[in-house]
Amino acid sequence: MNTNQEIEFQGLYGNYRITNSDQIEVKKYRLSLLFCGISFVAGLNHWLFFGPNFAWIWLLLMSLSLGFALKWIHIYIQLLHKVLQTLCLIGSLGIILVLMRSGPENMLSNIASNPLLTLFVGPYFAALTGLGFKEFFCFRRPEAIGVTLFIPISLIGHIFGIINAGSVMILLCISAILFLILAIRKFGMDAASDIGDKSIFEYLKNNKSAAIT
């Protein structure tokens, strides 16, 4: 799509245009996803090949990039959007709390050895799972299914001790690779697909304003 030209679309509740500003927002969303995916893969590889020391840095970068992605994502249901943002914020604060409590060198090792600490970072990964579900629901991308399933299975399995540490790491590695594939494939899509039907957003906004007044 030409970034210098606004194209009109027929929406459910009327015509709308994808503006240059919309397309820039989509680029920011996709770059945030890509950075999150790279950080996810890099963090796990760092842990596997170099140990947990300093691998926590990648977790902080994941937290930051997911926060930006959830800022620029387009979701029709505003409540769901707010829930994902709130989960990301709570989980990010949990990451910082565990980091301060355990210390940078011991953070990931403590989470691995003490499953209950996963509850502090769990909301962040719940937000990541929610984003994966949104991508699957909207675009039916097979890699999004893996992200939506493997992340909660691995973390819940770790918390309740029903999955051993090796299997948890395998599931997380698969999830990270699939998330990175998902992020890369986003760049081959038209910007309008990530924007969605703007007439629906306007309709919901108007209905909310009417209800308030």
Written account of the structure:
The chain is built from 9 helices and 2 strands; from the N terminus they run ββααααααααα. The chain has helices at 20-50, 56-72, 78-102, 107-113, 118-139, 142-159, 165-186, 191-195, 198-212, and strands at residues 7-11, 14-18. Strands 1-2 form a two-stranded antiparallel ribbon. A hairpin with a 2-residue loop joins strand 1 (7-11) and strand 2 (14-18). The termini are far apart.
Shape: elongated
Mean pLDDT: 91
Which spans have pLDDT < 50 for at least 5 consecutive residues?
Answer: none
Pattern of helices and strands: EEHHHHHHHHH
How large is the radius of gyration? 19 Å
What order do the helices and strands come in, and which of them pair?
Elements: E1 7-11, E2 14-18, H1 20-50, H2 56-72, H3 78-102, H4 107-113, H5 118-139, H6 142-159, H7 165-186, H8 191-195, H9 198-212
Antiparallel strand pairs: 1-2
Helix pairs in contact: 1-2, 1-7, 2-3, 3-5, 5-6, 6-7
Short description:
76% of the residues lie in helices and 5% in strands.
Keywords:
about 210 residues, mainly alpha, two-stranded antiparallel ribbon, 9 helices, about 5% strand
